[in-house]
Amino acid sequence: MFDIGLSTCGKVINEELFRDYRDNHITHMEISVASDEYKNIDLKNLKKWSDEFNITLWSYHLPFSPFSSIDISKKSLQKRTLNFYYELIGKASEIGIRNFVVHPSGEPILDCFRERRKENSKESL
User: Mean pLDDT of successive 10-residue segments in the chain (125 residues)?
Assistant: First the structure.
């Protein structure tokens, strides 16, 4: 048997979802929710259900929008975004998540800004 993972993107994260993963032989879960839902994630229950249904909490998709307030490629938002990410990474790490997904910027980016924005993203990461 081999491991199969699936993102929660667009799904309500609850006990039923963990049961569905188990019943469909999905062994690994990426936590991914809409940007305004990160404040509602119940990490204690995620850990409980993960243990109960033997689902590995494989990764945590960090929010990447709205790009007007979260964007590591914009110097004006870099520090704020990183502080927010540090907080989320710290909390998710406490329940055993070790992999984090980040989008380095929004698109589209005009060519005249692209190189500098890529450098800002590399610096941030």
Answer: 88 96 97 91 97 98 89 92 95 97 88 92 91
Residue 73 sits at φ, ψ, to 5 deg, of -90, -10
pTM, two decimal places: 0.88
CA distance 75 to 104: 12
CB atoms within 10 A of CB 31: 24
Q: Token digits for 36?
A: 């305004």
What is the Cα–Cα distance from 74 to 81, expressed in whole angstroms? 10
**Cis before 104? omega within 30:** no
Which DSSP category does 39 fall into? G
Structure tokens at 120: 């800002």
Q: Which residue has the tokens 């199969």?
A: 4
Tokens encoding 125: 């990461």
How does DSSP assign 42-96, residue by residue? -HHHHHHHHHHHT-EEEEEE-----TTT--TTSHHHHHHHHHHHHHHHHHHHTTT
Place of tokens 């110097």: 75
